[in-house]
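Hey,

The postdoc asked me to send both predictions to you directly instead of through the lab channel. I've kept everything plain text so nothing gets mangled by the mail client. Protein one:
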Amino acid sequence: MMDYSVKHGIQSSLYAPLTKTDVKKISEDAFRVLEQAGMLVYSKSAREAFGKAGAEVIEDEQLVKLPRSLVEDAIASNPSSITLCSRDGATDCVLEKNRVHYGTGGTAIYVLDPDTGQRRRSTVEDIILNAKMVEALENIHLFTINVFPHDLENHEHIDVNRFFHSFDNTSKHVMGGIYTMRGCQNVVKMAETIAGGEDALRSKPVVSFITLVISPFKIDDMYGEITCYLASKGLPVVVPTEPICGTTAPITLAGNILTHIAETLGGIALVQSVNRGAPGICGSVGSITNLCTMDHVGGAIERAMINAGVSQMAQHFEIPLYSTGGTTDAKEMNVQASYESAMSSLLVAMSGANYIHDIAGLMETDMTVSYDKLVVDNEILGMCQRVLRGIEVNDDTLATELMIEKGPGKNYLTDEHTIRHMRDEFFDPSLSNREKRETLSDEATALGKTKAFVRNIRANETQSLLPLHVRSQLLESYPEIKAEVK
């Protein structure tokens, strides 16, 4: 069993695309944009909260201008450290400073079917399998619900089904977007039942939620109302933004980073205007535009650079960050998927982004989840973790005295120093094949091992990770849950 207290939450500031002067300039300009241009706010509750906090609300335009003092006060009152709790305590994710954690995400509408390899629409069964996969993959630290259940016809039933089947199949922290206010309220009640009550959930949040600031500078009615509700409950809420270079943000990377930080600070200001001290989490999801087609690009290296820049800004403001990495425009698990995901994952991780979502399993410009890619990305993330650990330099690791004692011409294979460090100095891959060509078989390749892992997870009989009495209570309270899944 991997020791998660050591293997995740590693601090990192190895990649910083912005200078200190850049950070200060972007910070100052973000305050100016929010104060002088403001945000369109279509939620009545959000406008009322902003108004009570001291914002200038132009009601007939549904425009809110945020004074610098209001935004600065929101930054000061927002927690600088937020723990996203697992149910068993083994994989708690502490979002603070430059600590790094990884998870799924995307709410993809397709999966690559593990039997046929063909793309199909995702179902409740895919939520279950994804949760089981995340439970088994040690470098994926929390489960952001990553597929949409197309087999549910009633829109009001989506939220409780997505979250119930997630809780039922992983003990890691569960995060997800919300589709209706009623669904949000039901999921909060569900989580309170699992946690042992309202106060227990607030003190140990085993669930968190994602709303959205819509670029450029808009808070819509539903997301605004849900953000206000979650803030009032004191539960962790991510207020991410998705500006795209050249369409919903200036085409430059610097302009995109400014849009990111100004918009998400607007979201933080809303959370704090509703409930001072509530756990708000900044979010960066944006990317660049394919100017030939005007499509959003998932695997661009510039996307990683943008998110690394936003990571620096979040650390400057001391606000926990939900970031994005590991994405690709590839349509299948191929060379392109590997190099785009690996480069993006490593750069954003090296920036110290607190929680990097979308970093496992997602492809095709964030539209499709691949089970094979989940496994491969877990391996990539293990390598990222080794990079973040860095090189420890001290008398023991330098082994200077040992070199002098042994002298020239001697090997170190059987030394006690070698035995003491051999298991923790190197990353031990589970997929990579390091054998000689003569011993290689299809089953021993990285792809062969990947497919075997997925087969084994699917073959294992599903065991609920909820206490039986809690599971029964939830199924009785929410008959709309699709409990019988093939």
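Protein two:
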Amino acid sequence: MKKLLLIAFTLFCVVVCLLPSVGMLFNPTYKPIGNERQTPAPSITQKDGSFNYKYFTELGGYYEKHFAYRPEMIQTDADIQSKCFFTSNIDTVVVGNNDWLYYTSSTDDYLGKNTLSGGEISGVKHNLEIIQSYCRANGVNFLFTVAPNKNTLYPDNMPYTYSAKVSGTHNRDLLHSVLEDSEVNYCNLFEPLSNQDETLYFARDSHWNNKGALLAYNTILTQLNQPHDDYSSAEVTRRKDFTGDLSNMLYPVSSEPEYNYYYGAEKNYSYTTDTKSVEDTLIQTANPNASGKLYMYRDSFGNALVPFFASAYNSATFTKSFPMNIRQEFASDKPDTFVMELVERNIKWLITMPPMFPAPEHSIFKTEGTLEGSAAVKVKPCDYAAEYTQFSAVIDSPDQGSDAEYYITVKDQSGAEKTFETFSYKSEDGNGFIAYLPAEQFPSEGSYEIKILVKNKDGFYELRS
């Protein structure tokens, strides 16, 4: 009897192990789960007909996303772990109280962990100032805004395991403090959203609902002085039809929809691109009854903003491409307004992936002296756009000050010398600068004599390494 039980248990284990693979013949998983993207089956040959040496690696990745009964297995595991152990079975989702879910990548901000340094947050401000100056030089009105993390506005349902805060200082507070004394046109959404009595974010999604998006839209366009419908007299429809991204990740089989609000904004504009949904990377719209041309960078928080902003402008372009190639976009779209929206957890993107446009040229400055430090300048083709050559360096200079800004003087083989303002830049190797120069004038294979100028509160200094 004992032997039969052992054989039966062994057969059961074999069947369970084979089921995901054999089941692909009958019931493969085709639909992506949560924020995943659909992956095509790999080809054994490359486009030129040669053997694809990455085939088996790619096949393994394909199998991980498509094995049979994957959604059912994920949900069963999620139910056991969330209901019995009050935790999540995937590292991108935090299971909170009262069936609330939070995005794991926002927990550093929540805990005050890995906060940007004083120099880095000054670099964020500096980069925004450069972007705004470039916009003004091109006749474009600029506005920057930040969408608050869900657990910033609604921390009460975060699990007790996140109660031990590392610090009371957060990137949003540092950003607010440096932008208060700057000329950057910054729209603070934290105040109007936090002043509302009702909850404007979904319980099982990381984003605001349409009511929260409407408040953000009205706040931004009021600050821009852009004529718009505030939808205060609109007929609002409330429907229980929204399934959250976090819910889909954790419970892919039976995610429960939540209530959302609809204001009829979609009736006021049409798409001029082949748009499948507001999730698309590039969306262009037209409303003949409105004025103005909008170019808007938005992340996933902007999905709910698209209908409102599209209804308020004669033509609008919405992009999720990051880093942005601003010169290229301005040349093709010729906007009069540029709105840049980033979620709180991605504030650091402004110094890790600054947008692309030619570095502003300046006159050669009178220096007050020299500063000691080290800097190894790298010149190479731009990582994102072939039209630029990328000049970057990590700077180590103890006397430069936390508010240091960098300029580079570049002398080419002909002896011509030009000075450019650079973006503050944070890389894996450290902090320094990055500048994009037109590859046609500054080819990456060229030979250059480069001087680094440091600007701080005392003036300009040449960096001596």
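Summary for protein two, as requested: DSSP finds 13 helices and 22 strands in the chain.

Thanks,
C.
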